[in-house]
Amino acid sequence: MNPDAYRELEVLEELSVNPRLTQRHLAKQLQVALGLTNLMVRRLVKKGYVKVISARGNRLRYLLTPLGLAEKTRLTYEFLEYSLHLYREVRRLLTETLGHVAASGGRRVVFFGASEIAEIAYLTVKELGLELVGVIDDERPGGQSFLGLPITPSKEVGRLSFDCGIVSALNNGLDAIRQRLSGLGVPESKIIVIEHRGPRVRLVSLGAPTGTTSEVTSVSNT
Question: Which class is 3-64 in CATH?
Answer without folding.
Answer: mainly alpha
